[in-house]
Amino acid sequence: MAYRLSIIALSVSAAVFLAGTASAEQITFVSQGGAYQEAQTQAILDPVAELLGITINQDSAPDAWPVIKTQTASGKVIWDVVDTPAKDCIRGGEQGMIEKLDFSKIPNAEKMPAEYKSPYSVAYEFYSSVLAYNKDKFGDNAPKSWADFWDVKKFPGTRALRNHPLATLEAALLADGVPADKLYPLDVDRAFKKLEEIKPHVAVWWTSGAQSAQLLADGEVDMEMAWNGRVAAVVKEGAPIGYSFNEGFLQYTSLCVLKGAPNQETAVKFVNAALTPDIQANFPTYIDYGPANPEAYKTGKISAERAAEMPSSPENAKLQVLVSDEWWSSPAGEDAQKRWAAFIQQ
Amino acid sequence: MAQSIRNPAELHERREQRLMMILLAPALLVITVLLVLPLLWLAWQSIRQDGGFTLAHYERFLTDSVYWVTFLQTFRIAVTVTLMTVILGYPVAYVAAGLPQRWSILVLAMVLLPFWTSVLVRAYAWLILLQRNGIINSVLTGSGLIDEPLRLVNNEFGTVMATIHILLPFMVLPLYATMKKIPGELTMAGASLGGSPLHVFLRVFLPLSLPGMIAGMVLVFVLTLGFYITPELLGGGRTYMVSMLVSRNIEVYNEWGAASSISVVLMVCVFLVFRLASLLIPFERIMGTR
Q1: Would you say the ipTM is above 0.90?
Q2: What span, in angstroms and rounded, lies between the C-alpha atoms of A279 and A282?
Q3: Mutation test of the interface with chain B: which of A63, A207, A339, choosing the one with the most B Cβ atoms within 10 A?
């Protein structure tokens, strides 16, 4: 009898608990973890939770794509909103794993440039692949463009590039004289041919952001393509490193909502709130990645000094090339990725 | 048959066997659930695609040059590392086996000490030693021996160096164990029969130590085949080993099947290596049970 009673008591308390959580709206938000997600918690997630009065549960995955695939394929969707490269949102949308966004419910995205949006995703934060160099080595005669990077006579020294074709193929084409506005669709053959030229001078093909920073800090390479946040961190530590956003490759991660997400409506509300200019303007306080909503730069929250260090500030954005996630998620883009390993090994 | 069961000795043996099985059961269960089943699942995945049977993942071994270049590089590194550990490890084991007990313990402790340090830490230690502004290059350029720093790391050379360092104990320990068991009287007998030290070593000691050497070689070779962190950190992006190909296949093809097929082929390679080695020496010897 006592056993029965305790079962009843348990189920009643469980019901109360469930009702309690159901009344307060919640979502599960997923990003890439580490310092990046910590910065977001303070800059974006906490203010949004307060603004909407919702609970934001967090999860993280360095590569969300396989998890999105598994969750939607098994029908056990736990995640609501994911912060991931737009290419995952787009191909996910095309394969029925990502929900189409109803932009009428996301007024904060209205003033964002059209190329920051896709039917399935909206840009969330920006970073850039920039050309960084050792100031001690080059002095006043610093490499400023990818043509300089490829010019081993005028700029002798060791180089490093990312062990990935994204932005690397673009750099090769710019070095080969393709105008920045005519890059896409990428001429993959031409890019690989140009890469063959620089290959003997590339000491390291880096695989992680931490590694790219280490290479600069240790003086292992004299110039490299690296993410602006990593470079800025090395500069802050006092290493003699210079960089500029000129011919940088502007990239962003996007927010998208999983198909069959348990909290569909709240998820869309979250997306809209996360793009609030005033909340987006918090990014530069916590991390070297820039807000995706250009309106954030008009809030007065970001100093001119800080804006100059942000990849997405209007002045810097003008100098850079926006990487086309659409091209990279197309079959041609996927083929280029498959070709990469063969190129590296030969 | 009925008579033999009544034989008390046999009954006793049977009871012992049953007891052994009960004792083994937990370990067998753990291995089945955590190792055998996942491996079967892996093999199953490698022949499935979109709910049907496929050999597409195995076809890539023939069509994708990356596959065999990677396997070739992996085996080349494994052979180099194995030979180098023999060259470096044999004298160490020889000296340790010949020393009095407390000195040999000291030598073995020196061999084992790095063994207790994380692979990751040791990879970074090699980076500090070998990089362009690293200790070795600074000394060499500082003393005027070379003008330009040597490229010692972020390539296959750096990977091989660090791998040798990590796997050396796997060569020294089986060698030491085998050498310890070689009766000193045998070499003395060889010498008293007029053999020169070199002659005695080549004709008596070396053949007797061979089982330990082969055991060490198999261990080092097989372990090298599965290396991941070391080539990833010290290979500079151009040293591609099979384990990296597995992770690349998850990233690029987004299919467990593509990655599984490579694991299955690598596993078959490992089995073949063990099979070949077991033709030379008994399997129990490789695993060090005898």
Answers
A1: no
A2: 5
A3: A207
